[in-house]
Amino acid sequence: MILGRVVGTVVATRKDDHLIGTKLLVVRTTDPSGRDEAGHMVAVDTVDAGLRDRVLVVTGSSARMAAGLKDTPVDAAIVGVVDSVELGG
Known about the structure:
Elements: E1 2-10, E2 23-30, E3 36-45, E4 54-59, H1 61-64, E5 76-81
Parallel strand pairs: 3-5
Antiparallel strand pairs: 1-2, 1-4, 2-3, 4-5
């Protein structure tokens, strides 16, 4: 799983039929403390995440296993909104 923060949305008026009705969000990857990392990705939102929410993202075949995405051409899916992260020390 990847930690990230929602930084934007993607509007695609023409897309694969399996993606109709899905919300596409731009996610910036973060480290566990919440600091931004270099990468961005577009992910299908399965949990009604919002702008600036910290989220859990799965990629690859795990993304297609998320709710409602079977047989959908996705490589990343938001599967959780993060409340907190605690690191042991």
